[in-house]
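Problem 12. The chain below contains 682 residues. Write out its predicted structure in C-alpha cell notation.
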Amino acid sequence: MDDLTPVPDLHRLLAPRSIAVVGGGPAERVVSQCLKLGFEGPIWPVHPKRSDLAGIACVPSIEDLPGVPDAVFLGINRHATIAAIGAFSRMGVGGAVCYSSGFAETDDDELQSQLLRAAGNMPFFGPNCYGFINAFDRVALWPDEHGVSRHDRGVAIVSQSGNVAVNLTFQRRGLRLGTMISVGNQASLGSEDAIAQLLTDDRITAIGVFLEAVRDAQRFAEVAELAATRGIGLVALQTGRSTAGALIANSHTGSMAGRAAAYDALFARYGVAAVRTPSEMLETLKLLDNGGRLRGRNIVSLSCSGGEASLVADRGENTSLRFEPFSAAQQAKIEGTVTELVSVTNPFDYQTFMWGDRSAMARTFTAVMDGPQDATILLLDGPNTPTNDPSSWYLAADSFADAVDSTGGRAVVVATLAECIDESFRAHLATRGLIALLGLSEALAALDAAASVGRTADGQQHAPVTAPEHTRLVDEASAKQRLAQVGIAVPKGRVVAADGVIDAAAQIGYPITLKALGLAHKSEAGAVRVGLPNAADLTSALAEMPMTNDGYLVEATVTDVVAEVLVTVRRDPPIGWLVSIGHGGITTELWNDITHLLAPVTRDEVRAALNQLRSVALLRGFRGRPAADVDALVDLVVRLADAVVGTDIVEVELNPVLVGRQGAIAVDAIMTVEITNPKDTS
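Solution.
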C-alpha cells in the first residue's frame, strides 16, 4: 500500500543543505561530527558569548542567522528550547532535533505540550533524544561519538533509546550502517514517521527498529505493509517484554501473555522480523543487506566437525529453520565426492579428509549446494592472531565461494564464536561475495528472522483499540447469555438460589454441573462440580461449596469432549484486540501452550494458529482417540472475535471451550466490560 497517513516531508531535516546549531558543548560536538563526515553545506552555530564552535564562527542569536537553515540542532536547556523552536518554526526551518531532557519522560507533560505548540507545523525529533546520523549525505545532528562510516548503500536503524543507538553505531560486525535515528520522546515525530521517510530512500536496504512501545499501531502497520511492498525488510527488537501488559489481572491469559504477545502478533501480521538481542538484530540486518529476505527456512549446514554439526542441530531447535535430509539423488551425488567414511546427513560433517585441497572441497560444496535449500551455511572459525597462519581457512572460504559461483545458491559463512572471524577475514569474504554471520546462535536467529520479513497476512488491517478507564466483571451467567446472543454455543443452564438447585437440575436433566457464582476462578475455590449424576450427589456437592450471595449456576454437563481449549479476546492497547488460543482447562498455566493473533481474524489464520500449538495433536485424535470438530472451534474463535471488537467488552476468556466430535461449547466464561461510572457494579 502506498497511501500512508499524511506526515511532513522530512527530507530537509534528514538530508539538509544547511544546518544551524544552538548551544554550547553538545552543539559543538554536532559541528565536529558534521565536519568529520564531510558535510558540504554551511553550518551556522548560535551562541551569545562564544566566538566559534569547533572552529566555525558563531552568531550571537537566532535573529542574526544569515539564512533559513534546513535543519536545526537545539542543545540548550528545556525552557530555552521551547523559545528557540518557536523562533525557528516562524522562520520556516525544515525540522529540528531537540536534545534536552526534562519533558514527558520526567512526567512534565505540560512542558512537552508547550514545546509542541511552539513548534507548530515544524517537525522535530525528541525531546530527550540524540538526533540522527545520515552518513549517505554526510550529516550528523548527533552530539556524541559514533562509529558510522560512509557507504553508497546500507541499512538504517531507528531507536527509541539514545544510548542504545550510540552503542549500536560502534558495531564491528561488517554491517553497512548508513543511518541512525534516535526519536526520544516522540512528541512530534515517532518511529513510524522515521521509517516512512527512510522507505523513500533507495539507498536503504533494510531497517532495524529498537523500540519500547509503538506509539501508533495503525501507523506502524501502514509503514510495515509499505516496507513489505517495496521489499525492504523491517527487523524489530522490542524491550520491556517481561512487564505484565495485561489490563485485567484476573484472567489466565493476562498472567501468561504480558505485553509481548500483542507485539509479537503485530510483527507477525505485518511481516516484521522479531529478534531478542542487539546482536541478533545486527546479524539479521547484515543478512538482509546482502541478498534480501530469505525465500524459505530450508537450510543446509556444512562443517568439518561432528561436534559443530551437532551444535547446529541443537541450536536450530530454538528456531523455525528446517534441516531437511538430502534427497536420494543429491545424497548419491555428494557421496561421490567424499570417502566411504563420511556419512552424508544434514547438518553435514564433511570431515577433514579434504582440508587444504581447494578443488576437492569445492566439488563437495558444489554437490551440497546444488539442491533445493533456501540457504547453505558453512561453519568456519579461523585463527586471528599474528602467530597463526589462517591460509587454510581462507582456502576453505574460497572453495565455498567457488561452489556459490557454480550453483548461484544463497550462501553464508558462520562463525561459531563471533571473535573467530576478524575484520581481515571478513574483507576477504566480501571480495568473493560472501558475508560472515558472527555467533552461531545469532546466525541461526538471523536466518530465521530473514525468512519471516515481508510475509504479511492477507486481508484488512487489524482493528484499533482504546484503553478503558473503568471496568467491571460480568457474572458468568450473564456473560454466557451475551455469548449465546452472538452464536457462541454454551450449555443449557439456569441461575437459582440454593433452594432452587434441585428443581433446576430436574428440569435441565442429569448429569449436572454446579457452580457457585461470584468467583472468577471457581476451580481453585472449590466452587465447581462437574458431571453430578443424580440428586443425592448434587445435594452433597451443594453443601460442600463455598457460600455465595450471587446464586448458583446449574448447567447440563457436556459429555462429548475430545479436547479442552482456551480462547480469549481482549483489548491490548496500544496495539489492538488480542486473540489468544491455547491448551485449556485447569492445567492451562502448566502447559503454557498458547498462540496469539490480532483481530479481525480469518478462518485460515485461526487454523494456522492452532497448528502452532503443541497440544494440536489432541485435536487431531491422539493415541486412538477420535478427532475433534476443528471446524466448529475455528468458527467459534472467528465469531467471538467479530462479536467483541469495537464493543464495550474489555476481555472475554472462555476456558475451557470443550471441543467434541461434533461442536465446540464454551463451558466457562469470564467477561470484563468498560463502564463510564466507576461506582456502577450492576
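Discussion. Residues 243-258 have pLDDT under 50 and may be disordered. Students who got a different answer should revisit the alignment rule from Section 12.3.
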